[in-house]
């Protein structure tokens, strides 16, 4: 089907949630003309700030990411679930404006957030050099008022012991011509008793300023709070009916963690809210798929408050009165025929540059030069894609000739440096090329020596990783057909909930991403080895 607008009289009938499955949190939604864009958080993964495009709010296609080079942000050394938090995409004066936060820490109430702004005439770039904004707090966004002024909002962090670390929402003017903040910041809103006030977005509608915030934390207590004022600086009155959207107290709902929303209006005056959700495998259990993006229809009567039916996330909602615009289906198999990685792939802590990602030297192959160990945070060599369904698989064919135990190449089910499963080729002490399996659960590694497979003489090895609900299974093909390893591994350790670690009330680790399936090459001795992957097939079952 053509990627041009489908010429049909009937509109797409419904939006099925989540519209972006798998790790796609903190959505910022934007309409420019007839085009809709969703920007989501990416944390320690490149390309940073993943963007999707739609013409009908039903069908979405990935455009890749905006932060594709270290010039825009250097993630070397970035901690797990640090990096790019809650981007904000806006349009003004014929330019896209992207604000993003680089959060460097969690410990002792310090976040060390740094906010940046880049602009571009087109969503595909080229993007300007970053403007360094303040580091007062994260979840920054840009509001363009009707009088032509622009304002930066963010949560206001307070590191002082005994204080509320979420000190409210602050606002400061941004001079677009001088490309800098001007004047003093002002505290705009201190939130509701739900607390943890963050994720601000400001809108002008019906003679009011409308402040949308996320509250309650980004897990089970999450919610979207609405407040309004006749004046930009307030005071802001909170909706007396409570949150616009939440799943609190409703463990029966399929979509949990509903919160962190942003609004969009169609040309016909229909309103929708994009927001994050999670789909736990059991009631209030682990969310292996991470935090995802959903869309709800908003009723907004003149003079009244915005409303979502029931105030809870719906699995399916009425789509806007727009022509249906599906996109071509993504091919299941990537044959690595293009000179650049496809939009489905992400790379860990370093962009996909020719010094380690090579799609040219050997046509129709992805050559990955080995990198650091699983705990290395400067130059890992992991190419991965988001897990988008509870039942899915990734299959590949690899050619690799290791010379010792320091050289590994294979397939992984991955969450972060501490939580992963890895099936890989390496060299045993007796000189054989072998397949080995290794798991890490909160940094505690488990080997499976009884499952070691002799792969000596196999020039091409098929590898498969399968997510089957709460378990992960691996299989291999040495040329005589597929054989499954006789072990079921715990998929639920690859989740936000499992990754989080609180010590003495302080977050020592956090989990904000989601599970990945990937191709992983390690060169622990720095000997310059590489592995060639002939293809990669992803399927949802």
TrEMBL record:
Record-annotated Beta-xylosidase C-terminal Concanavalin A-like domain positions: 333-539
Keyword Hydrolase: yes
Top-level division of the source organism's lineage: Bacteria
Pfam families in the cross-refs: GH43_C2, Glyco_hydro_43
Residues at the catalytic site: 26, 198
Site feature location: Important for catalytic activity, responsible for pKa modulation of the active site Glu and correct orientation of both the proton donor and substrate: 139
Single GO MF descriptor: hydrolase activity, hydrolyzing O-glycosyl compounds
Stretches that traverse the bilayer: none
GO BP terms in the entry: carbohydrate metabolic process
Keyword field: Glycosidase, Hydrolase
Family per record: Belongs to the glycosyl hydrolase 43 family.
Protein's name according to its UniProt entry: Xylan 1,4-beta-xylosidase
């Amino acid at each position: 089907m053509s990627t041009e607008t489908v010429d049909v009289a009937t509109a797409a009938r419904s939006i099925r949630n989540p519209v972006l499955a798998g790790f796609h949190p903190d959505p910022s939604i934007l309409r420019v003309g007839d085009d809709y864009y969703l920007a989501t958080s990416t944390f320690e993964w490149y390309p940073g700030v993943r963007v999707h495009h739609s013409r009908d709010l039903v069908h979405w296609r990935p455009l890749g990411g905006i932060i594709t080079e270290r010039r825009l942000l250097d993630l070397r050394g970035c901690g797990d679930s640090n990096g790019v938090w809650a981007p904000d995409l806006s349009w003004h004066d014929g330019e896209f404006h992207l604000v993003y936060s680089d959060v460097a820490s969690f410990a002792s109430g310090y976040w060390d957030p740094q906010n940046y702004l880049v602009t571009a005439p087109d969503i595909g770039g080229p993007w300007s050099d970053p403007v360094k904004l303040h580091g007062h707090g994260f979840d920054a966004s840009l509001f363009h008022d009707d009088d032509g002024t622009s304002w930066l909002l963010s949560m206001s962090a307070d590191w002082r012991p005994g204080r509320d670390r979420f000190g409210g929402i602050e606002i400061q003017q941004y001079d677009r011509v001088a490309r800098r903040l001007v004047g003093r910041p002002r505290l705009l809103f201190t939130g509701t008793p739900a607390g943890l006030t963050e994720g601000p977005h400001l809108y002008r509608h019906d003679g009011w300023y409308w402040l949308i915030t996320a509250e309650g934390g980004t897990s089970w207590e999450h919610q979207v709070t609405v407040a309004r004022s006749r004046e930009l600086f307030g005071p802001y009155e909170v909706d007396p009916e409570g949150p616009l959207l939440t799943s609190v107290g409703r463990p029966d709902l399929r979509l949990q963690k509903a919160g962190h929303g942003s609004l969009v209006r169609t040309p016909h005056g229909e309103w929708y809210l994009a927001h994050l959700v999670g789909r736990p495998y059991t009631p209030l259990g682990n969310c292996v798929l991470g935090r995802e993006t959903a869309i709800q229809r908003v009723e907004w009567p003149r003079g009244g408050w915005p409303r979502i039916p029931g105030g809870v996330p719906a699995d399916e909602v009425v789509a806007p009165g727009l022509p249906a615009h599906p996109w071509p289906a993504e091919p299941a198999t990537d044959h690595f025929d293009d000179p650049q990685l496809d939009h489905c792939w992400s790379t860990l802590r370093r962009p996909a540059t020719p010094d380690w990602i090579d799609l040219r030297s050997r046509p129709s192959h992805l050559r990955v030069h080995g990198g650091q160990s699983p705990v290395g945070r400067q130059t890992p060599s992991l190419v991965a894609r988001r897990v988008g369904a509870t039942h899915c698989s990734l299959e590949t064919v690899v050619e690799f000739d290791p010379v010792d135990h320091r050289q590994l190449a294979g397939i992984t089910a991955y969450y972060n440096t501490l939580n992963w499963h890895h099936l890989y080729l390496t060299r045993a002490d007796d000189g054989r090329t072998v397949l080995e399996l290794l798991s890490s659960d909160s940094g505690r590694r488990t080997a499976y020596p009884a499952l070691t497979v002799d792969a000596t003489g196999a020039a091409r090895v098929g590898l498969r990783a399968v997510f089957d609900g709460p378990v992960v299974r691996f299989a291999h093909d040495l040329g005589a057909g597929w054989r499954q390893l006789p072990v079921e591994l715990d998929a639920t350790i690859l989740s936000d909930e499992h990754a989080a670690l609180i010590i003495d009330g302080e977050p020592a680790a956090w989990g904000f991403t989601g599970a990945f399936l990937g191709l992983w090459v390690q060169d622990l001795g720095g000997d310059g080895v590489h592995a060639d992957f002939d293809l990669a097939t992803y399927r949802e079952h």
